[in-house]
Amino acid sequence: MTNAQIKSFLNVVRYQSFSKAAEKMFISQSAVSKNISLLEKDLGYILIDRTNGIVKLTAVGEQFYDFFSNAESQFADLLERVTQMTSRQAEDIRLGCLDGWDLSQFYPQIQKIFSEKYPNASLSLEGYNHLSVLDALVDNKIDIAITLAIAVPRQSSFVSKVIASAPAVILLSSSHPLANKKDFKLTDLKDEPFYVIAPHSSKVNPLEQLALLLCRSAGFEPKIEYAPNSASILMRLQSGKGSQITCNWTSAARFPIYKTIKLDHNLNICAAWLNNEKVSSKHLFVNELMRLDLTEQ
């Protein structure tokens, strides 16, 4: 259950329309429908009766609508109180994100919101790969990491909050023979390399583990080939051979020389920080981030 799913449900009921809710949230109508279906699946109950073509809450849906509405209002009130309490002590925030990600969906928005609410604070941004961004957090080079949830170890020293969900994709060259294959299957790539960043020391590469999981589920062992960094992977892809399993937040997906193919697997994206501080502007930043709708990238 994600914030985007709850927002989709509340907006559809408020506007009595899937299309108006989508317009309000700046996402597609299909995304709104999918969010609500996923919410119903997570809760185990049907919330909206779709049989007569109009938006009508089920009896259970009415209960959840009241609950989510009240929770939204209470959260907004609490956030306002905390904001007023801490804005004068707001501190600078050093943000670390995965290099190669397209951040245009949220960074300008959150920068504007934060500068308006916390004029004494400033944001700075640095890029790291998914193996080194948590090292930067531990080494006190950054305060918050925006990364894949699968990359954050389940340790008491880290705190993380999911802020979005995005499809996993196959990234390959637009000149790849399979780039425009209509009935593409993951097994089509079984004889080609899957590029991942070489792990350092004894650390596990989460995207390597993802590639292994998805390929093994498809019935084959992937040919993993290591590269030193993200730039090297993109250069190798330009040869028209091999692919990378990644998230569709990758900025390479926006360039015509590359092609992405969505997989039937979603990746959670989270904000992570060290569990060694009291409530501060870092936590307020995460709360502001969670209020944005980042589902569609």
Describe the structure.
The structure is a single chain. The protein is globular. Helices cover 38% and strands 23% of the residues. It is an alpha/beta fold and 297 residues long. The chain contains nine helices and ten strands. A six-stranded mixed β-sheet has the order 4-3-5-10-6-9.
Give the helix level as a range of percent. Answer: 25-40%
Strand content: 15-25%
Order of helices and strands: HHHEEHEHEHEEEHEHEEH
Count of individual beta strands? 10
Uncertain spans: none
User: What's the overall average pLDDT, rounded?
Assistant: 86
Give the SSE map.
Blueprint: H1 3-15, H2 18-25, H3 29-43, E1 48-49, E2 56-57, H4 59-86, E3 93-98, H5 107-117, E4 123-128, H6 133-138, E5 144-148, E6 158-173, E7 193-197, H7 206-217, E8 223-227, H8 230-237, E9 244-247, E10 258-274, H9 281-291
Parallel strand pairs: 3-4, 3-5, 7-8
Antiparallel strand pairs: 1-2, 5-10, 6-9, 6-10
Helix pairs in contact: 1-2, 1-3, 2-3
In short, what is this structure?
This protein is an alpha/beta fold and 297 residues long. It has helices at 3-15, 18-25, 29-43, 59-86, 107-117, 133-138, 206-217, 230-237, 281-291; strands at residues 48-49, 56-57, 93-98, 123-128, 144-148, 158-173, 193-197, 223-227, 244-247, 258-274.
